[in-house]
Amino acid sequence: MALVMRIKFPPTYPLIYKTLRIESNLTCQQAVFFISDSLNVPVIGRIGLYLPQDKQWLDDDTALSSYPQLQDAEEVEFRFRDRADGKPAGGGGGSTRNDDKCCLIL
């Protein structure tokens, strides 16, 4: 089964949003590489998939089908897992600082 996902990219990428059909049996890490290959955007550093509505990182080794909330997610962020200072990125938590290297479109 394929998921239709609206992917949001970091501000350093040439895209802001893109909607893709991604097979649900892929792991999160495989999905990151699928997105990268499909859209010809490089995977720079530690990129992961993040659900901003749930403030949750998807585990690299877990199949997308294990996350039922992906069916109803408005967007999924293609996001840096580490901040510029090398510390793990936070969950978003309302921070207005750009430490987490993800874009916010208002």
Radius of gyration: 13 Å
Largest sheet composition: 5 strands, mixed
SSE order, one letter for each helix or strand: EEHEEE
The share of residues in extended strands comes to: 15-25%
Structural class: alpha+beta
Shape: globular
What is the count of β-strands? 5
Spatial gap, N to C terminus: 32 Å
Low-confidence stretches: 92-100
The helix fraction, in percent, is 10-25%
Number of helices: 1
Order of neighbouring strands in the sheet with most strands: 2-1-5-3-4
Mean pLDDT score, rounded?
A: 82
Secondary-structure map with pairings?
Elements (H helix, E strand, L loop, with lengths): L1 E7 L8 E7 L4 H12 L7 E5 L4 E2 L18 E5 L26
Parallel strand pairs: 1-5
Antiparallel strand pairs: 1-2, 3-4, 3-5
